[in-house]
Amino acid sequence: MMAGILWVFSVLTAAGLICYGLQFWSILAAARTVESACGVPGGSFLPPISILKPLKGLDDNLFDNLESFCLLDYPRYELIFALQDRNDQAHKVALKIMNKYPDKDINIVVQRRNEGLNPKVNNLISAYEAARYEYVLISDSNVLAGKDYLKMTVAPMKDPGVGLVSNLIEGVGGRTAGSLLENLHLNSFIMGSVCFLDRFLNIPCVVGKSMLMRKTDLEAVGGLPGVKDVLAEDYLLGRKMNESGRKVVLSPYRIQNVNHYWSLKKFLNRHTRWGKLRWKIGGPKYLAELAANAVFISSMPLLLHGPAGGALVLALSTSLVKTAGDFYIGKKTGNYLNPLSYLLVPAKDFLIGLIWFVPIFSSGVVWRGNKYLIGKDSALSPCPETFSTVQGMRKTTWSYRIANTIRERFA
After folding, report:
1. Domain spans of the chain?
2. How far apart are alpha carbons 260 and 341 in whole angstroms?
3. CATH architecture of structural domain 43-265
4. CA 342 to CA 326: how far, in whole Å?
5. Which of 4, 46, 84, 348 has its CA 20 to 30 Å from the CA of residue 323?
6. DSSP string spanning 342-398?
7. Which residues pair with 213 in a beta bridge?
8. Active site residue 229
């Protein structure tokens, strides 16, 4: 019995490692593209750009993140910081940036908007209305940009057939366990999935931390109001652009997502929410995420029957391969995470494996202090106050017990 179970999970683990190998190759190919592009002088296509920055609360490294956008090597652009409330702590940071760089074209828009259920889109609508230029770049507040960011991101827009340009993201920083887990996941699974979908399947996977579009193209697909009531506004905008016949391009330029002081609870909440989002968008395709998690799959014989019969060897060898692979990716992409942080890779992948089951049985999320239910294509609806993250599950199932344990310990 044990030999049969071990054989099955060994085959599944091998399949998972093959999937990881394809992600691994995709990331390294993208890294080589960045190296090639960095040696090419900037072109003459440098249209003025409006950068829209929705702000709420004090993100890690917020001042330096916003300041990096004042140091861009680009001839003409404006920065628009959008907030809902003047009492928001991010408003003080935005004012400091404006006062430090009086020569920069900076505008702070404070306006309470309730057009939709997505609070980020509500902020963006205000910023978009204030934007003066045809090219608009949506950029999250936890993004740190290098001086060549705009030049390299706008380059594909020289082709009039391109409707949207998104960027790869890499997690940097990490002074707590939650932050390290977040950065490790961004730099392996998230980056690998985006690169794999773009390079092998030609499927646009837009990451909302950086989206460059023309106003005319955006408005042709319904504009920001068209995604005001969905959680995955970035993915839906990319899909709408693609369906309209416009190209969606993934820029090889990596932007930095700064995470310093995340708690374990924040990490689990973020990826539970993202998992629910992908389940509602992908449906059965969501199964591929579990199939590609070789560390989690390889641990199943160990959990079911203990270390006997080679189960421990399978789990340890798989964890070693995955840890070494992620470390190599970090080294080749120039990511400067503490080398010792890669020892957390197996624990991170195992946690992600547990989280994978929750979206199948629960549709509720808490985001920016609001409770929502997620429907098809990440459509949002208000969530009853009595909502439980495991509402509707049969309490006799093992999946209920996993989800309930996660909820009680980290929610």
Report:
1. 43-265
2. 13
3. Alpha-Beta Complex (3.90)
4. 7
5. 4
6. GGGHHHHHHHHHHHHHHHHH--EEEETTEEEEE-GGGBEEEPPTT--TTTT--TTSH
7. 136, 164
8. no
Q: Tokens 């490790």 label which residue?
A: 184
Residues in the chain: 411
Structure tokens given for 95? 């004012």
Helix (H) or strand (E) holding 81: strand 77-83
| Token pair for 340 | 């010792």
Distance CA(290)–CA(354), nearest Å, equals: 10
Q: What is the residue-level pLDDT of the chain in tens, covering all 411 positions?
A: 667 889 999 999 999 999 999 999 999 888 877 655 554 445 689 999 999 999 999 988 999 999 999 999 999 999 999 999 999 999 999 999 999 999 999 999 999 998 999 999 999 999 999 999 999 999 999 999 999 999 999 999 999 999 999 999 999 988 899 999 999 999 999 999 999 988 888 887 888 899 999 999 999 999 999 999 999 999 999 999 999 999 999 988 889 999 999 999 999 999 999 999 999 998 999 999 999 999 999 999 998 888 877 899 999 999 999 999 999 999 988 877 889 999 999 999 999 999 999 998 888 888 777 788 999 999 999 876 544 444 444 444 444 455 455 445 444
Burial of 410 per CB tally in 10 Å (0-12, 13-18, 19+): middle
Spell out the SS3 assignment of 131-168.
Answer: CCCCEEEEECCCEECCCCHHHHHHHHHHCCCEEEEEEE
Report which of 208, 211, 255 is spatially closest to residue 230, judged by C-alpha positions: 208
Token pair belonging to 232: 């995955």
Q: Which two tokens stand for residue 325?
A: 């692979």
Residue of 198, 234, 326, 349 marked catalytic: 234
* 113 burial via Cβ count (<10 Å: 0-12, 13-18, 19+): middle
CB 79 within 8 A of CB 107: yes
Handedness of CA 223, 226, 231, 235 (dihedral sign): negative
Q: Which helix (H) or strand (E) holds 258?
A: strand 247-258
Q: What CA–CA distances, in Å, run from 14 to 37, 140, 168, 174?
A: 35, 37, 27, 31
